[in-house]
Amino acid sequence: MNAPSPVIDPRAQSALRRLEWQLRRRSVQTLLGGAHRSVFRGRGMEFDQVVRYAYGDDIRDIDWNVTARLGDLYRKVFVEERELTVFAVVSDDPALQFGSGATSKREVLLQLAALVLMLAVVNRERAGLLHQTPVSQSLHTPTRCRARLLSTLAELFAAEAPDPALAQPFRASPLLTGPVPQGALVVWFGEIPPEPPPPEWAAFRRRHPVIGVRVEDPWERAPPASGGFTAFDPAAGRLAWVETTPASRAAHAAWRTAREEIWRAWWPNPLDRLVVDAGADPLAALVGFLRARRAGAAHGAP
């Protein structure tokens, strides 16, 4: 007897259909740069073999030594060209529910995760997902199947946001100890980690290229204008009076500096970290980031 199909939230389905429509409408296929070229990594990561050059292949991969020896064009093939897994880790921190505008950081972050995984499948790459919360985690093994991916993303979108009362004890680390597919490109979506990376982080990054993605609210960049106002405190579940003073502005500046230092310690390479404004277009931000990565790879950036 077959197990019953899971009931999918219609609102989650509708949100995913809109994202998929945007992905196709914006013609992001132009970012792919070839049938077997990863839109996320840019250049190949590990040499595998030499094959005959075909029209449309990247001329930068031509092996001139083999070409001169055999009298015909040959190019290098990299491991990532045969199979790339894009593994998204969504660290569903309760603090992501903050939002000074109409959209919370969590809503934007989920959209970004969905777009990355959809783009991976469009590019014929395998897409997997690990959804972490303060009380549980849900692992979805990598797939190239569009229908299966959409079901996974619908489950992610329909998941209840964590209780804000749990905000303090939960800050997940990008250094994963669970089952990450061998050689997978890890894209981490979450808050800034609470402390600098441990020594093991360098070894993890050698095994898995890691991109860090976070969403920033305008109030995180700069506090509101001077004066007092009322805001809702989700952790306490009540309204609170917030007053901006010179002292609070100084404290905010120090807090922001410390956070940015930690963020850059985890991802020293600017091409490996993406910060998206809570009010920005997630797809436009992602496209700009991927273009910058490809341009950086083409110019030999680390």
> What is the averaged pLDDT score?
82
Strand content: 15-25%
Q: Would you report the number of β strands?
A: 10
Question: Helix-strand pattern, N to C?
Answer: HEHEHEHEEHEHEHEEHEH
Rg calc: 21 Å
The number of helical segments is: 9
Content-based structural category: alpha/beta
Sequence of strands across the biggest β-sheet:
5-4-3-6-7-10
The biggest beta sheet is recorded as: 6 strands, mixed
Distance between the termini: 53 Å
Helix content: 25-40%
Q: Unreliable segments (pLDDT under 50, ≥5 consecutive)?
A: 1-6, 32-36
Shape assignment: globular
What does the model show?
The radius of gyration is 21 Å and the shape is globular. The protein has nine helices and ten strands. It starts with 9 loop residues before the first helix and ends with a helix. The chain has helices at residues 10-25, 64-70, 79-82, 105-122, 146-158, 200-207, 218-221, 246-266, 282-298; strands at residues 47-52, 74-78, 85-91, 126-132, 137-143, 185-189, 210-216, 227-233, 238-244, 273-277. With 302 residues, the chain is of the alpha/beta class.
Quick summary of this structure?
The chain has 302 residues and is α/β, with parallel strands linked by helices. The protein is built from nine helices and ten strands. It has helices spanning 10-25, 64-70, 79-82, 105-122, 146-158, 200-207, 218-221, 246-266, 282-298, and strands spanning 47-52, 74-78, 85-91, 126-132, 137-143, 185-189, 210-216, 227-233, 238-244, 273-277.
